[in-house]
Amino acid sequence: MSLYLVNGIMIGVVLFLIGTFGCMTRRNFIKIVLCVDIMFLGLILFFVSLGYTEGGAAPILGGYSTYVDPLPQTLMLTTVVVELSVTSLALALAIKVYEQYKTLNIKEVTP
Amino acid sequence: MSELLVGMVITPLISAFLFSLTAVSHRIPHAVMMRIRNTLAVVALTALAIQLLMVAPPVLSGQVLTYTMGGWTPFMGIALRLDALSFMVAAVSVTVSFLGMIYSFSYMEHIRGLGKYDAFYFLMVAGIMGVLLTRDIFNMYVFFEILSISVYILITTGEKKENYRASLKYLVLGSVSSGFFLFAVGITYAITGSLNMDHIAAAVPGIMEEDPVPVYMISSLILASLGLKSGLVPLHFWLPDAHSMAPSPVSALLSGIVLKISIYGLFRLSSLFGGSILGSDGVVIVLGVVTLVVGSVLALVQKDLKRMLAYSSISQIGLIITGLGIGTDVAVRGALFHLINHALMKSGLFLCAGVIIHQSRSREISRLRGVSPGMALCFVILSLGIIGVPPLNGFSSKLVILYGAVGAHYTSIAAIIVMASVLSCGYYFRVIQSVLTPEKWKRTYNPPVPRTMSFPVYILTALCLILGVVPLIGLRVAELAVLAGGG
Predict the structure, then answer these.
(1) How many beta-carbon contacts under 8 Å exist across A and B?
(2) Which residues of A touch B168 (CB under 8 A)?
(3) Taking each helix axis from N to C terminus, what angle separates B329-360 and B259-272, rounded to the nearest 10 degrees?
(4) Which of A18, A36, A49, A84 to mutate to test the interface with B (most CBs of B within 10 A)?
(5) Residues B233, B224: contact at Cβ < 8 Å?
(6) Hey, is B66 helix, strand or coil?
(7) Selected residue of B149, B159, B164, B185 to mutate for chain A interface (largest A Cβ count, 10 A)
(8) Mutation test of the interface with chain A: which of B140, B142, B148, B168, choosing the one with the most A Cβ atoms within 10 A?
C-alpha cells in the first residue's frame, strides 16, 4: 500500500461522510441533492482508488507489466449512470415540490 | 433450463421498454391503445409466471439453477442463481404484481393513459426479479437502484401535493441507504477481492479469523442500509408517508413486496458474512421487538385507513425481523413463512382499502361506509389473518415464530409478540366495526366495484385461506428456503 493509495481512499471516505452529514443536517432540498452527489462522488473516488496500483498502466492491451485493476472503474461507470438518474429525478421532484408548496425548505414541506 | 433465469429478468425489462414506446405521441384511439397496453401487460406477466412454473419442479426438489452471463467465469462475469429462497419470494412477487396490474386496469385508468405508470411498474418488477436472482453484490446494488427509482416515480403517479412530498422524502433517504450499501460493497471488494457471493462466502471465514473488524463494518453498513429500506424503527419515518400516499396498487406492492425484498437481501447477505448481520448477539432481536411494539402502538392512533395499514406493516416487519434475529431453525422458518403470508395479506388489504376508499369516498376510518358486502368480508378475513386468528395463515406462521422463540428461551419476546397481536386487534377491529355497522349501509352512495378490482382481492383472500387451512405447503417451502439461504 503506497501513500497515494491511502490518500485516495481516505479522501473518498471523508467525502462520503461529509455528504451523509449534509443530507442529515441541511434544510434546503437543492443542498440535500448536492450532498447526495458529494456522497456518491466520495464513493466513486473510494472505489477507483481501490483499484490503483503503484506505477500501473491503463488496462488496455499492450506490453506493460503492471496494470491498474479495471473492475472498480467499470463498476463506477455504472454508478455514475445510476447517480445521474437519481439526481435528475430529484431535481425534477424539487421543481414539482416548489410548484406545489412555494418553498424548498424541508421543514416547511414536511410537517 | 437455466437460460430461463435470464428470461425472468429480461421479460419485464423488455415490456417496460415496449410500454415506454406506447407513451410516444401517436394517432391510435385511446380505447385501442388501452386494449394494447392491457394485452401487453397480461402477456408479459403470464410469460414471467410460466417461466417460474417451468423452473419450479427442479428448484423445489432442492436443485440450484445457475447461469453465468455470456459464459464469463464468476470472477469476472455475473452469475444468476435461483434456489428455493429466491424462488419462494419470486413466486409471491409475481403473483402479487400480476394481481396489482389487473387491479390497476380500472383503478389507475386515468393515470395509465400516459403509459408512464405501466413502464415504471414493469421496471420495478425487473428490479425485483434482478435482486432475487443475482449472485453478484454490485449487481444487487444496481437492481436495488432500478427498483427504488421506479418506486419513487410510481409514488408520484397520484399527482397530488402529498405524493411529491412523500416521494421526495423517500428519495433522499433511499439514496443515503444506497450509498451505505455501495460503501459496504466497496469494503467487501477490498477485503475479499471478488464481488461474487460464492467467492465472498468462501473468503470471509479466513478474514474473520485474521481481523473481524472490516466484516463487522460491512455488516453494520448493510444492516443500516437495508434496515432503512425495510423500515426498522429508528429509520421508519419515511414509510407511512410513502405507503399511504401512493395509489393503492402501488401501496400494495410497496408494503407487500418491496419491503420483503429488503428483508430477503438482509437474510441472503447475512449468511455470506458468517451470519454477522442477523447475528445472535441480540441487536437485531431488540430492533425487531422495538419495531414490532412501536409499529403497533403508532397504528392505534391513526385516523387514516391506509396510514394505519402502513404502520401495521412496520409492526409485522418487526415480527419477521425478530424471527430472523432469534436465528434458530424453527424461528427462521416461521419468519420466512410469515414473510409470504404478510406479502399476500397486506397487499390484499391495501387493494381492499383502495376499493373501500373508492366506495365510501373518505380515507378516515370513522367515516367508512357503503362498502359492498364482498369487499367487507374480504377485509375482515384478511385483517383476522394479520391478527392471527386460527384457521388463517397468519396464525400458523405466528405460532411457528412463537414456538421458535420459546424453544430458544426467549419467553419474554414470545409474550411481547402475543401482546402486539392483541394490540393489532385494537386497530383492525376499529375498521371492521366502522365497515360493518349496518345502519350506515342504508343511506349511502355505493358505486359498483369493477370486476378487475374485486377479483384480485378475492384471489388474495382465497390464497390466504388455502395457506391457512393447509399451512404445510408454506412451511415445507420455507424449510427448503432456510436450507438454501444457509449457503
Answers:
(1) 76
(2) 29, 90, 93-94, 97, 109
(3) 170
(4) A36
(5) no
(6) strand
(7) B164
(8) B168
Q: What is the pLDDT of residues B152-166, one digit of tens each?
A: 999 988 778 888 889
Residue B434's pLDDT is what? 83
Q: Where are the domains of chain A?
A: 3-54+67-109
Residues of A in contact with B169 (CB under 8 A): 110
- Using CB atoms, which residue from B142, B164, B168 is nearest to A82? B142
Mean pLDDT of the region B134-155: 92
What tens digit of pLDDT does each residue of B337-387 get?
999 999 999 999 999 998 888 888 788 888 777 778 888 889 999 999 999
The amino acid that residue B330 corresponds to is V
Nearest chain B Cα distance for residue A66, angstroms: 17
Distances in Å between the alpha carbon of A52 and those of A70, B91, B138, B407? 9, 43, 19, 51
Among B101, B115, B86, B458, which residue's Cα sits nearest to residue B252? B101
Minimum Cα–Cα distance from B168: chain A residue: A93
* C-alpha cell at position B240: 407511512
Is B432 a residue whose pLDDT tops 60?
A: yes
Instruction: Take residue B475 and report the three cell numbers written for it.
Output: 412451511
Q: What is the pLDDT of residues A38-97, one digit of tens each?
A: 999 999 999 988 887 777 777 777 767 777 888 888 889 999 999 999 999 999 999 998
Angle (CA) B66 B71 B73, round 5°: 75
**B186 closest CB neighbour out of A19, A43, A78:** A43
- Interface touch A43/B156, C-beta < 8 Å: no
Res B317: pLDDT = 93
Q: Which residue has the higher pLDDT, B198 or B146?
A: B146
What is the rounded radius of gyration, in angstroms, for the C-alpha atoms of chain A? 18
B61: enclosing H helix or E strand: none
pLDDT bin (cut points 50, 70, 90) of residue B487 is: very low
Top-level CATH class of A3-54+67-109?
Answer: mainly alpha
Q: In whole angstroms, give the CA distance from residue B301 to residue B140.
A: 37
ipTM metric: 0.92
| Nearest residue in A to B144, CA atom | A82
Q: In terms of CA atoms, which chain A residue is nearest residue B186? A: A47
**B117 band by pLDDT with thresholds 50, 70 and 90:** confident
Confidence class for position A1, pLDDT limits 50, 70, 90: very low
Are A93 and A107 in contact, with CB atoms under 8 Å apart? no
- Report which residue type is found at B418: V
